[in-house]
Design a protein that fits this description.
The structure holds two protein chains of two kinds. By secondary structure, chain A is mainly alpha-helical. Chain A is 58% helix and 0% strand. Chain B is of the alpha/beta class.
């Protein structure tokens, strides 16, 4: 009787990497649904095309690196990267923009660093920043939301056309609320709100609902224990605090209310889908608190005093740099030890 | 309701306990053959005290403890000892160990035994001896000798809490569960004995809330005692000693420490029952309760089984289908280890035999890359960062592993269970722990060697300095003497003064530890004749040897010396001689080596020339001849001189030689020549001195004779 010899543990939990990635994809649904409702099918077309490019890039990279294709393609990680980048990009982005961004994310930002688990930077955000710097016009042409100035959003066919034959259909673009606020130098906030109907109720028509959608998806992932609450809560809390500190009550120089910051732009999406990427974030719970809090601060600073209206991608990349440093100083207290702290201080006794 | 605490992390794997809980405890019966490993506990293996063919009775001691941390082994039933040999046992290594094999006679006759029914009035030492003699070792899994744990508190301090561990947090296992359910009175009776030994302020019986019937039974049995049954939520691994202590007391056992350090002693429920049976009934530990479960057995359940029973015997009783079995695990699915063969015996720590099907516990899928999701850190009951440890383990970064407290890992397997990438994390930690331990051992060894080397260097330096100081003293003395001798030679000195000086010189020479060579009279009479004889002797020796032969003889001599020295060195090492002796021998061998090499080279060089050339031999001969001729010429030159003149000439010559040698010595010193050269010159001067003195004496004597 040949009995199997393996070491303990013999039992294994039900969770797998593929399951984690699937959960992230499913959690995107409410936010994407809101985006689709308010801005049309552009985001969905983006996602579909990005996923194709993502899988192809992954396959090419795996082939070049002589890695088992089947196992890695089935882990859904490329789909997650592609989907997150597609969501972050303006709806109705031209096909080549997505091609460049997604393939850069997968091949350069992920596989050149060693593939899944080895990338120091969030691949989707690397792709996003590369596109933002290289193609600023395309990357800041946001579609106008449904219902503002009686605008009708393009249908599915028009969306596909817009993607693959740019300029073939007339599409209305419009500055985002974050843009407007940034460029505003003279109007008080109330007046600005009244002049520009796209500000909506709290933080922009469409944007506020999409943000709430991503918040819902994030809460669901928290419930499923895909990640811990530390990084998102810290980021939202520090962003709120910063906004509250600098908000001077609606004057022309106002940097926006805390609620505006929380629900506009990529705040919620970033807090629950980007900074929670485990590979490129800090590892301990305390480390994730620091990581998230500093991202919140950076997002506010760049939005309010930097050159770009939104800042999640830059803030995340900067903090990706700092993650190993944070890890070094935030080792948890091990059972039976008096203190946690830095890895070196407690070296050999 | 007592306050309870929680510990960090933990997981909730499917419990799978109900399968083996439907039946009451069954008696397994007596197998035909029992195999008793001598090492069923932590510590030194017991020593067999029976012979092959010897009849033994049930409960008879068959192996006695070897040392303090060791326990005896007893015959679980009556029968005959048929072998004392190496057998496969249940151990993660899969290695065979020494076992006593007993063929049972199925009569199950007890040896005469009696407990201490009145144990309450017995003293602690008696009780501890009783527990030790009964062969009781912790039955929860580790198997640490119970009497040692109860008897010694290595760091002093009082114990305030006695914890009885009835957690049994591993899935599948129900041995303690049914024990508490069916033998709660024995648990409590055993605990009372433990209380007497430990004298705690409070006694806590910790049970997870997934065992309501056991809790009920324990509570009933505890009525009227000062024991507290504490129930807490089910979570793996709350049965780990450290975790249980934190749950019950809120205190953490310091890293590297023992529960006793925070005033806690923790014992397993099964151990308490074994203590009760040993103390009250005088029955040694010869049976235990073992769960047999898993989908490969038809009737899972718990057995009261004799130690040494082959696992296959229990599997048969449970309706086991071998074709469905894929691995056999002793212990639970989280921390148990696989067994190579179902024939291995049940031992004191066998709480469960798990026979899963492939579907039940599928083989581990291939590991995927770590995505640093941190689920392992969430699961870790020791608050470690398993994924960091994993990276360091792969990178063999031992310092970082230690800085991240690798050795606080209890190998519970929660991280591996939680890992979505199927990485066998615990396996990495086990390997790294072994590597770090080995590395430390090596470091300690090299540290020891370094200390020894430094001590040796220091000693050699000290010796060199002493030698140098002696040399300087010698040199000063020699210079002073040379000056005086020169004065004595030129100016006619007072004979008394000369005598004093001679005495002083002799004394100095004696102090230097060098005997003044006693020259034979002939040397004083005729040094030239002596030289002739020496040269002749040398010629006689060397004349009949070719240079190759000579070199070979030399080589052989050196080799002999080296072999002798080496033999001496090994002998001294074995005898554990002093380090200085060993060092000295080592140094001697080191010195011989280059000499040997030189000799070898010489032999090789000479061997290259197929035939020893006559020329060098002739030269050699010539050299000897030349010396003879020189000596003869010298003799001839002095032949026509009067003895007084001859003596005078001799004295002059010696003085010249001395002066020359001294000049050379001074020059060499200034030039900073090799120590060896200076030493040689000094030795030469030292040799010249007595000669000079002898010559001086001769001249004086001859002068005195003339005057007379």
């Amino acid at each position: 009787m040949a009995l199997m010899r393996v070491t303990s543990p013999h039992a294994h939990g039900p969770l797998s990497t593929a399951r984690v990635m699937q959960t992230v994809l499913l959690a995107c649904i409410p936010g994407v649904a809101a985006l689709t409702w308010f801005f049309g099918y552009g985001t969905l077309v983006n996602i579909a095309w990005a996923c194709l490019v993502g899988l192809a890039s992954e396959a090419i990279a795996l082939k070049l690196r002589r890695r088992p294709m089947g196992m890695y393609l089935k882990d859904y990680s490329a789909l997650v990267t592609a989907t997150l980048l597609a969501i972050a990009m303006p709806a109705y982005a031209p096909w080549w923009l997505i091609l460049v961004g997604v393939s850069f994310s997968i091949i350069i930002a992920k596989h050149l660093y060693g593939g899944l688990g080895y990338n120091p930077f969030n691949p989707a955000m690397v792709g996003y920043v590369v596109l933002l710097i290289s193609f600023p016009v395309e990357m800041t042409s946001w579609a106008a939301p449904r219902g503002v100035n009686a605008i009708e959003v393009p249908g599915l066919l028009d969306a596909v056309k817009l993607c693959f034959v740019p300029g073939s259909v007339d599409a209305v673009t419009m500055a985002t609320p974050l843009d407007l606020l940034k460029q505003n130098k003279t109007l008080a906030v109330d007046a600005l709100w009244q002049q520009n109907p796209q500000f909506g109720r709290w933080a922009g028509v469409g944007w506020e609902w999409a943000s709430l959608g991503f918040l819902a998806g994030g809460l669901w992932m928290l419930y499923r224990r895909i990640y811990t609450w530390h990084a998102p809560v810290a980021m939202l809390a520090s962003l709120t605090l910063m906004a509250a500190l600098f908000d001077d009550g609606g004057a022309a120089r106002s940097t926006g209310s805390p609620l505006f910051h929380l629900l506009s732009g990529g705040t919620m999406f970033g807090a629950f889908f980007i900074i929670t990427d485990p590979v490129s974030s800090a590892v301990s719970n305390l480390g994730r608190l620091v990581f998230g809090a500093l991202i919140g601060v950076l997002v506010f600073l760049i939005r309010s005093f930097g050159n770009y209206p939104d800042a999640v991608a830059f803030a995340v990349l900067i903090m990706n740099f700092a993650a190993p440093f944070i890890d070094y100083y935030t080792q948890p207290r091990t059972y039976g030890h008096r203190q946690g702290g830095t890895a070196s201080r407690k070296g050999a006794p | 309701m007592r306050k309870i605490w929680d510990f960090h992390g933990g997981i909730h794997p499917p419990e799978n306990k109900h399968q083996s809980l439907t039946q009451p405890i069954r008696r397994a019966g007596i197998p035909a053959e029992l195999v008793l490993p001598l090492n069923q506990h932590i510590g030194a293996p017991a020593e067999p005290i029976v012979e092959i063919g010897q009849k033994v009775l049930k409960g008879e001691c068959v192996a006695r403890p070897a040392g303090f941390i060791s326990v005896p082994v007893h015959a679980p039933t009556s029968g005959t000892v048929t072998a004392v040999e190496e057998r496969q046992v249940a151990h993660p290594s899969g290695l065979a160990t020494e076992c006593i094999v007993i063929t049972s006679d199925l009569e199950d006759r007890w040896v005469e035994h009696a407990g201490i029914p009145d144990w309450t009035s017995a003293d602690k030492a008696t009780l501890l001896a009783c527990i030790r003699d009964a062969g009781i070792a912790g039955m929860g899994g580790a198997g640490f000798p119970t009497a040692v744990k109860l008897g010694v508190n290595p760091r002093g301090g009082s114990i305030d809490t006695l914890v009885l561990n009835g957690t049994e947090c591993e899935p599948y296992i129900t041995a303690d569960h049914v024990l508490m359910r069916e033998r709660a009175e024995e648990v409590v009776a055993g605990t009372r004995i433990l209380q007497k030994l430990v004298e705690p302020k409070e006694t806590l019986l910790g049970v997870e809330d997934n065992k309501p019937d056991a809790i009920e039974a324990l509570r009933r049995a505890c009525e009227g005692t000062d024991m507290d049954v504490v129930v807490f939520p089910t979570k793996y691994p709350s049965g780990g000693e450290k975790q249980l202590i934190e749950i019950l007391t809120g205190r953490q056992v310091p890293s590297g420490g023992l529960p006793a350090d925070i005033g806690v002693v923790c014992q397993n429920m099964g151990t308490a029952v074994a203590v009760y049976r040993a103390v009250v009934h005088g029955e040694p530990l010869i049976s235990r309760i073992t769960t047999v479960t898993g989908e490969a057995v038809a009737q899972p359940g718990n057995f009261d089984v004799l130690l040494g029973t082959p696992m296959s015997f229990l599997l048969e009783l449970s309706g086991f289908s071998a074709d469905r079995l894929q691995r056999l695990v002793m212990g639970g699915p989280m921390m148990g280890f696989t067994i190579p063969d179902a024939a291995v015996p049940v031992v004191k720590t066998t709480n469960c035999i798990l026979a899963p099907t492939e579907k039940e516990l599928p083989p581990p899928p291939p590991a995927q890359p770590c995505i640093r999701c941190g689920l392992c850190a969430e699961a870790c009951p020791a608050s470690l960062l398993p994924q960091q440890l994993y990276w360091f383990s792969r990178g063999k970064e031992y310092e970082k592993l230690e800085a991240h407290n690798l050795f606080d890992c209890i190998e519970c397997g929660a991280c591996s269970y939680a890992c979505p990438s199927n990485i066998p994390l615990v396996q990495y930690y086990r390997a790294s722990k072994a590597e770090v331990t080995q590395l430390k051992r090596d470091q300690a060894k090299s540290e020891h060697s370094k200390t020894r080397f430094e001590a040796r260097q220091e000693r050699l330096q000290r010796e060199a300095e002493e030698k140098e100081a002696q040399r300087r003293a010698r040199k000063e003395a020699a210079e002073a003497r040379a000056r005086q001798a020169a004065e004595a030679g030129s100016a006619e000195q007072d004979p008394i003064q000369a005598a004093i000086e001679r005495a002083q010189a002799k004394k100095a020479a004696a102090q230097e530890g060098e005997e003044t060579p006693q020259r034979p009279a002939v040397a004083q009479l005729d040094p030239a004749q002596l030289a002739i004889e020496r040269a002749k002797a040398a010629r006689a020796v060397s004349a009949d040897q070719s240079p190759a032969e000579k070199a070979r003889a030399n080589l052989e001599r050196l080799q002999e010396r080296l072999a002798k020295s080496e033999a001496k060195l090994t002998a001294s090492r074995e005898q554990g001689a002093e380090a200085t002796i060993i060092d000295a021998l080592e140094a001697a061998i080191e010195k011989l080596r280059p000499k040997l090499e030189v000799a070898q080279q010489e032999v090789d060089a000479l061997g290259d020339e197929a035939q020893p050339k006559p020329a060098p031999a002739a030269e050699e001969k010539d050299a000897a001849q030349l010396a003879i001729e020189r000596a003869q010429a010298a003799r001839a030159a002095t032949a026509d001189q009067s003895p007084g003149e001859k003596a005078q000439a001799n004295l002059e010559r010696l003085r010249q030689r001395l002066a020359k040698s001294e000049a050379k010595l001074a020059a060499s010193r200034e030039e900073g020549a090799d120590d060896s050269i200076i030493d040689a010159l000094e030795a030469a001067i030292e040799k010249l001195r007595p000669k000079l003195e002898a010559a001086q004496r001769e001249v004086e004597e001859l002068k005195a004779g003339q005057e007379a």
